[in-house]
Amino acid sequence: MIYKEFAEFYDELFDPEMYSGWFQYLTNSINQNSSILDLACGNGKLAIMLAKDNYEVSGADLSGEMLSIADQHAREAQVTIPFYELDMRNLSTIGNYDVITCFDDSLNYLLNLKDLELVFSEVASHLNPKGKFLFDVITPYQANEVYPGYMYNYRDDERIFMWTSYAGEFAKNSVEHELTFLMYNEQKDAFDEYNELHQEVTFEVETYQELLKKVGFKNITITTNFGKDPYEKNIKRWFFECQL
Fold first, then answer.
1. Class of the domain covering 142-201
2. Is 103 exposed, middle or buried (0-12, 13-18, 19+ CB in 10 A)?
3. What does the angle CA 206 – CA 212 – CA 218 come to, to the nearest 5 degrees?
4. What are the strands of the beta sheet with 190-201, ordered from one edge?
5. pLDDT (tens place) for every residue of the chain, 244 residues total
6. Using the 8-state DSSP alphabet, how is residue 62 labeled?
7. Which member of 38, 55, 125, 142 has the greatest number of CB atoms within 10 A?
8. DSSP label at 145?
9. Structure pTM?
10. How far apart are CA 238 and CA 32, in angstroms?
11. Which residues pair with 235 in a beta bridge?
12. CB neighbours of 48 closer than 8 A, spacing ≥ 6?
């Protein structure tokens, strides 16, 4: 994807209440003096909200293009945030933190249990004693009942965006998102087209619990609605607060 052009468009489409929800969920669970690493930070919006509230926060993402956007947004917000380009399956280049977060379906892009366990292990090894790991995932209910058949279309004078979701055939509790983005090219007097296929997988709640305990997490609390409501099986998203 052409991230530099798409990032601004993504910001316009993305519900700002989601960022506010993650911010409140996180800050209700941690101390003000906690050092935080936001994994898969994307365009850095959550990290910037934390930095503006005087939290010590860093961001990490696999995409260098998205990190460039995040750094630009941080400078515009007049906050200083270290950003790291890395794969969440290997955190060996960074230090330890009091809190590590990973929101917005990011862990659902790990398509097998081996990679998910590896990330959990890497996170556990880069947390300070009694450190916390907070993340969310889509649920099997979301993957199997909500997403299949979902469609979203947007158009203005210069951009067209089409999103269609299907049940995944490559794994249990999986979903595929076909994304098409068209941007008007003034020199050509035509639209340039870009396509992406996004694949997500989720697991039963017991699987997440087993893997978290296996790598050393002892206290695991699962909630819904950004921590406001108790665990429920048939709901779109689960929130995990895990402590060593």
1. mainly beta
2. buried
3. 105
4. 151-155, 159-167, 174-185, 190-201
5. 445 556 556 656 667 788 999 999 999 999 999 999 999 998 899 999 999 999 999 999 998 888 988 999 999 999 999 999 999 999 999 999 999 999 999 999 999 999 999 999 999 999 999 999 999 999 999 999 999 999 999 898 888 989 999 999 999 999 999 988 888 889 999 998 888 899 999 999 999 999 999 999 999 999 999 999 999 999 999 999 999 9
6. S
7. 38
8. I
9. 0.93
10. 24
11. none
12. 70, 73, 74, 77, 79, 81
Domain ranges of the chain: 3-138+202-243, 142-201
Contact (Cβ atoms closer than 8 angstroms) between residue 240 and residue 210: no
The DSSP call for residue 203 is -
Provide CB contacts within 8 A for 137, sequence distance 6+.
105, 107, 108, 202, 208, 237, 238, 240
CA angle 72, 47, 9 (to 5 degrees): 55
Give me the half-sphere count of Cα atoms (radius 13 Å) on the Cβ side of residue 217.
27
